[in-house]
Amino acid sequence: MPPSTPDPSSSSSNLRPGGSGPHPGSGEAVAEPGRRETAAAAAVAGLNQPAAAELGRRERMLLAAVAALLALLLLWLRGGLHPEAPLERLARQSPELSLALRDGRPTLVEFYADWCEACRAMAPAIDRLEQQHRGALDVVLLNVDNPRWQAELERYDVNGIPQLELFDAHGNGVGRSIGARSAPELESLLAALLADQPLPALPGVGATSALPAANQGVSSTGGSDIGPRSHG
After folding, report:
1. Of 84, 83, 132, 139, whose CA–CA distance to 112 is shortest?
2. Same domain, yes or no, for 49 and 141?
3. Total domain count for the chain?
4. 150 and 92 in a common domain
5. What is the largest CA-CA distance in the chain?
6. Same-domain check for residues 60 and 172
7. Could you confirm whether 175 is annotated as catalytic?
8. Catalytic residue check, 26
């Protein structure tokens, strides 16, 4: 009897048409690709976590910096930072007197003190004029409480403050003003100084102007008691 031939349909029931690999109907064949995709997605997510964390830190730092700047701006707008007062600013940026008198520009010298209320009242106008004529005018402040300026106090006969000494572009003294000045008076004084014209005829202004009687200090004995710390 001839040998029996194997039934092709029974031996290939679990093979793909190409004869290799399991048939799609197999449970193992369906599960394997799914596991590979899940593992790949997990690996990608793990790689992205440090980058996402770093980006989050940078955003938080940026937001904190912006918040700090906004807080400082709000504080400044409310006056909490106390901007530098005009008198302190003028004193800080004051050039040396010897240099100012040699640089070919007219010079305004003010003898002042920190405690002098009249000096503080004049400071905003002088500060504004200094900025307006910067490069054409020197403004020099000398504190009468500083021993460094004792020689200047004696040379310019400082008997009260505020005292202004005015010099032309050649460093020659052209006039003096003693006592508080209003903004219009300061403007007229500096306009004449910059134009190399005679100083305006104002009370207390002249080559060697005397102190007005209302501003003179009087001692308890009735005599004059005027000094550099007068007229604050």
Report:
1. 139
2. no
3. 2
4. yes
5. 161
6. no
7. no
8. no
Position 186 in a domain: yes
Residues 193, 97 share a domain: yes
Question: Does 224 reside within a domain?
Answer: no
Q: Are residues 73 and 110 in the same domain?
A: no
Choose, from 90, 119, 125, 178, the residue flagged as catalytic.
Answer: 119
* Sequential pLDDT tens for the chain (232 residues): 455 555 544 444 444 444 444 554 444 444 555 566 666 555 555 555 665 566 678 888 888 888 888 887 776 666 555 567 999 999 999 999 999 999 999 999 999 999 999 999 999 999 999 999 999 999 999 999 999 999 999 999 998 999 999 999 999 999 999 999 999 999 999 999 999 999 999 988 987 433 333 333 323 223 333 343 343 3
Cβ-contact 73, 67 below 8 angstroms: no
CA distance 135 to 158: 27
CATH code of 130's domain: 3.40.30.10
Task: Give DSSP secondary structure letters for 56-95.
Answer: HHHHHHHHHHHHHHHHHHHHHHTTTT-PPPHHHHHHHTPP
Range of the domain at 149: 86-212
Annotated catalytic residue within 116, 123, 137, 199: 116
- Pick from 95, 230, 224: nearest CA to 153: 230
What tokens were used for 98? Answer: 């010897």
